């Protein structure tokens, strides 16, 4: 029982790593504003770019990427030590080599959930794109670089962040399925990729309607707020 309780504590820590409200803190520290009341209402780097500018957005982006990678590295450090310290308590059939990738998978999903449903922001947040990139780079850097390349190309051609993010998520799913990766990592990337796309459902509606803003343009939400 102690082993499983400690395992859940590890997932809670991964969630808290992901839930650090980077964009919200940037708004408060730099301008004394609640970024959830600005632009699209998201705490992600794109809304920070529209609201606070290029350098704060870059800082938020980097920290959010580190949050995702940090959750994976934490899980890879924590669970083997937990297994070693409580070696007499886990079920006898529990094989660390088989179990650890699943623990890392769950920690990654917890971090994604934390980023988009932060306990510090009444369970609201960003779309988990940057945190997801951190996860990808931590578990399989070729998959992470492939997804980042697709994002960069789409952004350069169309200048639509949401489109690049969703196509990057689909690229990550395709790459993780095509490469030799443990099943838990495939589950993490597929589940996380689908989650990121679902988080963009409002963007999908605007893309279909032809109203999705390009990089440098105001979001529809900010225009509505300005007119009200």
UniProtKB/TrEMBL annotation:
Annotated GO molecular function terms are: acyl-phosphate glycerol-3-phosphate acyltransferase activity
Q: Where are the transmembrane segments?
A: 6-26, 57-79, 99-116, 128-151, 157-179
Enzyme Commission (EC) number: 2.3.1.275
Q: What is this enzyme's catalytic activity, as reactions?
A: an acyl phosphate + sn-glycerol 3-phosphate = a 1-acyl-sn-glycero-3-phosphate + phosphate
Location(s), subcellular: Cell membrane
GO annotations under biological process?
A: phospholipid biosynthetic process
> InterPro entries of this UniProt entry?
G3P_acylTferase_PlsY
Q: Name one GO cellular component term.
A: plasma membrane
Keywords (alphabetical) are: Acyltransferase, Cell membrane, Lipid biosynthesis, Lipid metabolism, Membrane, Phospholipid biosynthesis, Phospholipid metabolism, Transferase, Transmembrane, Transmembrane helix
- Give the top-level enzyme category: transferase
**What topology does the record note for this protein and the membrane?**
Multi-pass membrane protein
Specify the pathway: Lipid metabolism; phospholipid metabolism
Family, similarity comment: Belongs to the PlsY family.
Describe its function. Catalyzes the transfer of an acyl group from acyl-phosphate (acyl-PO(4)) to glycerol-3-phosphate (G3P) to form lysophosphatidic acid (LPA). This enzyme utilizes acyl-phosphate as fatty acyl donor, but not acyl-CoA or acyl-ACP.
What is the annotated quaternary arrangement, including any partners?
Probably interacts with PlsX.
> What is this protein identified as?
Glycerol-3-phosphate acyltransferase
Q: Per the UniProt entry, what species is this protein from, by scientific name?
A: Rhizobium hidalgonense
Per the UniProt record, the lineage of the source organism begins with: Bacteria, Pseudomonadati, Pseudomonadota, Alphaproteobacteria, Hyphomicrobiales
């Amino acid at each position: 029982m102690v082993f499983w309780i400690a395992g859940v504590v590890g997932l809670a820590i991964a969630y808290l790593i992901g839930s650090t409200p980077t964009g919200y803190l940037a708004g408060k520290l730099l301008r004394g504003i609640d970024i959830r009341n600005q632009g699209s209402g998201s705490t992600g780097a794109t809304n920070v770019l529209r609201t606070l500018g290029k350098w704060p957005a870059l800082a938020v982006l980097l920290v959010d990427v580190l949050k995702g990678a940090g959750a994976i590295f934490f899980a890879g450090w924590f669970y083997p030590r937990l297994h070693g310290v409580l070696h007499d308590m886990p079920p006898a059939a529990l094989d660390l080599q088989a179990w650890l990738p699943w623990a890392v998978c769950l920690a990654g999903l917890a971090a994604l959930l934390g980023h988009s449903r932060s306990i510090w922001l009444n369970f609201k947040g960003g779309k988990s794109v940057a945190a997801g990139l951190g996860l990808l780079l931590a578990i399989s850097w070729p998959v992470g670089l492939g997804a980042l390349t697709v994002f960069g190309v789409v952004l350069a051609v169309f200048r639509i962040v949401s489109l690049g993010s969703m196509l990057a998520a689909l690229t990550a799913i395709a790459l993780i399925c095509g490469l030799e990766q443990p099943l838990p990592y495939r589950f993490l990337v597929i589940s996380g990729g689908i989650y990121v796309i679902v988080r963009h459902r409002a963007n999908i509606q605007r893309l279909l309607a032809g109203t999705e803003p390009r990089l440098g343009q105001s979001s529809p939400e900010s225009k509505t707020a300005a007119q009200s």
